[in-house]
C-alpha cells in the first residue's frame, strides 16, 4: 500500500515523501526533494524546485506525471496523485512569463493611442496639407468616440473587473497579440479618418442603427464580465456554471456558454456597419473566428466538468454554433 491513491477513505499517509524532478525532454535528473509533506501542493513543490534552480521561477514551470502529459494544476495535492512514496515529476520550461494584466493593458492601450493619432491627423500620415485638420463627417467623430470608449472600457475592466485563473502567459505572446490589435487599429483608423473617406451608403439611418447595435452589445459585454466576476471570489480559482441574473443582458446565458464573446462580435459588427469600412469587417471576421475557437474550448470544459450543464446552450451563437 505504497500509493496514496490506494489508501482507504479517510486514511492519510503520515510520513514524508520524496520527489524527483526530471527534464521532460532529456530525462536528466534536475532535482531531488527529500522529506516532502504528503499534503504539499504542486505550487509548493515548484517553490522548492526554484530554490535549487532560481532561473526557473514557479510561473515558468510545468510539472507533469508523464513527459508528454498535461501540466498538473498548482492546487493539486501530492497525496492525491497516482504516485508512490517516491514521486517522479517531469519538468518543462514554459519560457519567460508576463502577467495577464500587463499583456491586456499593453494590448488595449496601443489601439486607443494609435487610433487617435490618425483621428487628429498628426503629420506624416496623410500629407502636410491635412496636418491636424478635422473631418467634416459626423460619423468619423462618432466612430472615434465608439472606438475609444471600447478600449477605455477594456482597460478599466482589466484593472477592476477581470479575475484571472492564470497569473501569467508566455512573454512571446505579447508580441503576437500586439501585432494583431495594434496593426488592425492602424489599418482601420487610416481609412476611417482619411480625408477622402466616404460616409455610409444609407447615411444617418445606417449610422443610428449601427450605433444602437454597438451600444447594446457593449452594455451586454460589460454585464457578462460583471456576472463572471461575481462567480469567482477574489484570489480563488473556483469554477461554477454561469447563470442569468436579474440583469436582462445576462439572459443570453440561457442560450450560449460565452455571451461575452457574442456581445463582443456584435459590437464590432455594429462598428463595421457604422463605418462601412472593409478593414473593420475583416477585423470582425478574424475576431469572430478566434472567439469561436475560445468559446468552443470553454463549452467543452463546462460539459466535461459539470454533469448538470444546461443542454440547450451553444458555444457562441444561439441554436447554431
UniProtKB/TrEMBL annotation:
Give the membrane topology: Multi-pass membrane protein
Q: Where are the transmembrane segments?
A: 98-120, 209-228, 269-294
Q: Name one GO biological process term.
A: fatty acid biosynthetic process
Protein keywords: Acetylation, Endoplasmic reticulum, Fatty acid biosynthesis, Fatty acid metabolism, Lipid biosynthesis, Lipid metabolism, Membrane, NADP, Oxidoreductase, Phosphoprotein, Sphingolipid metabolism, Transmembrane, Transmembrane helix
This protein's record includes keyword Transmembrane helix: yes
InterPro entries in the record: 3-oxo-5_a-steroid_4-DH_C, SRD5A/TECR, TECR-like_N, Ubiquitin-like_domsf
Its cellular-component GO annotations read:
endoplasmic reticulum membrane
Q: In which pathway does it act?
A: Lipid metabolism; fatty acid biosynthesis; Lipid metabolism; sphingolipid metabolism; Sphingolipid metabolism
Gene Ontology molecular function terms on file? very-long-chain enoyl-CoA reductase activity
User: What Pfam families does the record point to?
Assistant: Steroid_dh, TECR_N
Tell me which Gene3D superfamilies the record gives: Phosphatidylinositol 3-kinase Catalytic Subunit, Chain A, domain 1
Which SUPFAM superfamilies does the record match to this protein?
Answer: Ubiquitin-like (SSF54236)
Which intervals hold domain 3-oxo-5-alpha-steroid 4-dehydrogenase C-terminal? Answer: 168-321
Q: What is its main location?
A: endoplasmic reticulum
Enzyme Commission number(s) of this protein: 1.3.1.93
Look up the domain of life of the source. Answer: Eukaryota
Catalytic activity annotation: a very-long-chain 2,3-saturated fatty acyl-CoA + NADP(+) = a very-long-chain (2E)-enoyl-CoA + NADPH + H(+); (2E,7Z,10Z,13Z,16Z)-docosapentaenoyl-CoA + NADPH + H(+) = (7Z,10Z,13Z,16Z)-docosatetraenoyl-CoA + NADP(+); (2E)-hexadecenoyl-CoA + NADPH + H(+) = hexadecanoyl-CoA + NADP(+); (2E,8Z,11Z,14Z)-eicosatetraenoyl-CoA + NADPH + H(+) = (8Z,11Z,14Z)-eicosatrienoyl-CoA + NADP(+)
Q: Where is the TECR-like N-terminal domain?
A: 18-93
Q: Does the keyword Transferase apply?
A: no
User: Where in the cell does this protein reside?
Assistant: Endoplasmic reticulum membrane
Q: What is the recorded function of this protein according to its Swiss-Prot or TrEMBL entry?
A: Involved in both the production of very long-chain fatty acids for sphingolipid synthesis and the degradation of the sphingosine moiety in sphingolipids through the sphingosine 1-phosphate metabolic pathway. Catalyzes the last of the four reactions of the long-chain fatty acids elongation cycle. This endoplasmic reticulum-bound enzymatic process, allows the addition of 2 carbons to the chain of long- and very long-chain fatty acids/VLCFAs per cycle.
The UniProt family comment states: Belongs to the steroid 5-alpha reductase family.
**Name of the protein in question:** Very-long-chain enoyl-CoA reductase
Q: What is the lineage of its organism?
A: Eukaryota, Metazoa, Chordata, Craniata, Vertebrata
Q: Which gene encodes it?
A: TECR
